[in-house]
Amino acid sequence: MIRVELPAHLRTLARLRGEAALEVQGAVTQRSVLTALEARYPALRGTIRDHITQARRPFVRFFACGQDLSLDSPDASLPEAVASGAEPFLVVGAIAGG
Amino acid sequence: MVGTHKGAFVLTSDAKRDRWEIDGPHFAGWEIYHLKGSPADPNRLYASQSTGWFGQVIQRSDDGGQSWEPVDNKFTYAGVPGTHTWYDGTPHPWEFKRVWHLEPSLGDPDTVYAGVEDAALFRTTDGGKSWHELAGLREHDTGPRWQPGAGGLCLHTIILDPSDPERMFIAISAAGAFRTNDGGKSWKPINKGLNSEFLPDPTAEIGHCVHHVAMHPARPGVLFMQKHWDVMRSDDAGDSWHEISGNLPSDFGFVVDIHAHDPETLYVVPIKSDSEHVPPDGKLRVYRSRTGGNDWEPLTKGLPQENCYVNVLRDAMAVDTLDECGVYFGTTGGQVYASADAGDSWKPIVRDLPAVLSVEVQVLP
Q1: Which residues of chain B lie closer than 8 angstroms to A60, CB-CB?
Q2: Cα separation values, B53 from A73, B61, B129, Å
């Protein structure tokens, strides 16, 4: 089970309390996790990554296990601790704006 | 219904329009550029919700705003969108940024038009489950020359003609006004008579920074426009325009609206520009013309007449259909003012909302 922690605005949009728990088939990557997340919570489509290009929105960052994974390839494997469910995959809104 | 920089608010009153209940914020923390109800079903509402972080969301309510469901938020330009013109004159690719305005169909609650930035017109016919571009507008011959105004290249005004379902009017900052006579397949710039001194050719076919356009439903051939500078009138569905600024203290502004029961009675809020965008002399004044323009009277009773430095944005004025006509507007300072006597006197419904982006009115049976 993959754990995903969302920022408050996206939890509200998805009507989600706490973390999302997702089954991910195959390799555990940013792309496969986000695809599973969007399939489970369709309201999140387009809010984390672009509908068409699947590029990460500029003011969204990805973290796990104390590392900033935002610039990693979306097809790179996530840390084993994320794949095992020991640690959450964090979707974070950039500290910016007002 | 009030859209603000930090959520939506629903203000409710009985027909006296004296005591108001304030409900909100809905979608707290998100920018609500616009929310509007279907004329065919007052319980069907649509809201444009966005932030710079998480992009665009469209919300739909089937119960008058008690509950909301997000619907499709995929606004994809048709075909290969090409380029428009950037601020510096260079080609710039079309990029969807947000929905500025939602205009529900007059007869079908499932059909809604969406005006977006970068400027294009989209439509849903399934209640928001999917959106499709009416690409004939963006693909107009002049499209590659459209340039953004200070607020972006936004399609902010959509007017549906109740006498002809095939005819629509839209306005884009800073491309100008356009009309379709065939349901959105083809479009014609309707900017003849506009004069914009900042343009190399002040009377060019396109390039005018139209801030808002209003039409009275009983007289769909007559349009009123608040341009960046100049208040304008057309008596031939936009084929030609003439200036009606008359004695206004400033003919810059954003809003223009029309009395529900008198198509010759107009409202504008003059703003000092180009660099300040505040009311002249620190006095918040609505100006009313009872003659279709040119002769304007200041309406000040109940509005702050000193130390007021707010703006009233283009979608932030509305009228109701009661007798007598109610007029409403919201400010960037978070006040929403109401007049239950066609503008003669005003009261704040609420004073401390986030900056107001839009105001719409529904009269419920």
Answers
A1: 53-54
A2: 21, 24, 23
